[in-house]
Design a protein that fits this description.
By secondary structure, this protein is of the alpha/beta class. The chain has a domain at 7-88 and 158-230: 3-Layer(aba) Sandwich (Rossmann fold), CATH 3.40.50.300. 28% of the residues lie in helices and 23% in strands. The protein is built from seven helices and nine strands. Strand 8 and strand 9 (213-218) form a beta hairpin. Helix 2 crosses helix 3 (113-125) and helix 2 runs parallel beside helix 4. The longest helix is centred in the last third of the chain and has 14 residues, at 171-184. It is globular, with a radius of gyration of 19 Å.
Length: 251
């Protein structure tokens, strides 16, 4: 029996106020893939994530997640947004932040023992289990990112989606986070948005370049020459037409 893909995007376009954001996107993500999404600001990366999450509906085309409508599959998805809406002065503990991920499943009222055990397990997965009662605001930037990933993991998802999880952290912390995600990838499928293709390419299996159109590359195609081309000056570029000197690009 053929395995159902985790994500299937078939000829999807999306417009906002008649302005095209994504055009004719087709993409398949299989179980235990590790996909990096790269591209310029306003190129459609976050819009693509929101379509996968079922937060937006395509103007045309079809999206299925685990063979279902994305909104119906959302319980199987852990999501870490680009900007966490947490007041740094709000007196909340690390464990409290992770437990917020249980609220997203529609829970009302107090958290029970199972919720707290599940949150503790999520913290163990990101190597933060010893800091559960520490104030979230007292953590370093890298530690806070780990806690937010734990919040996305607390629902025990099969698909983990992260929007720029390594923003505002230094290179050493970035390495630690990607190493951690690589370990998590053994159990679940990971899709993340990043601007650091040269850095993340050693961890991911495929790269999708998004700039209205979407082109997917296996990581094996990413050479040092391509990375230099992508990151030349301030331009992030992937060449999609090998028959021309400078083909369609992601800029």
């Amino acid at each position: 029996m053929e395995e159902i893909p985790v994500i299937t995007i078939d000829n999807v376009s999306f417009s906002l106020d008649h302005l095209p954001i994504l055009k004719d996107v087709s993409l398949t993500v299989h179980a235990h893939d590790f996909l990096a999404i790269v591209g310029p600001n306003a190129g459609g990366k976050t819009t693509l994530l929101k379509l996968i999450l079922g937060l937006l509906k395509p103007t045309s085309g079809h999206i299925h997640v685990f063979g279902q409508d994305p909104a119906r599959a959302r319980a199987r998805i852990g999501y870490m947004p680009q900007y966490a809406s947490l007041d740094p002065l709000f007196p909340v503990s690390v464990l409290d932040v992770v437990l917020m991920g249980r609220l997203e499943r529609g829970k009302i009222g107090f958290f029970n023992r199972h919720d707290k055990e599940t949150a503790a397990e999520a913290l163990r997965k990101v190597e933060m289990h010893d800091l559960g009662f520490r104030p979230f605001a007292a953590l370093s930037g890298g530690q806070q990112q780990r806690v937010l990933i734990a919040r996305a993991l607390v629902s025990d998802p099969d698909l983990l989606i992260l929007d720029e999880p390594t923003s505002h952290v230094d290179v050493a912390v970035e390495t630690e986070l990607y190493e951690m995600l690589s370990v998590l990838n053994r159990q679940l499928t990971v899709v993340l948005v990043t601007h650091d293709l040269g850095f993340v390419s050693q961890y991911v299996k495929h790269v999708a370049c998004v700039n209205k159109l979407v082109r997917v590359h296996p990581t094996s195609d990413i050479s040092g020459e391509m990375i230099n081309e992508i990151y030349g000056s301030d331009v992030h570029m992937i060449r999609h037409d090998a028959t021309t000197t400078r083909g369609p690009t992601c800029v």
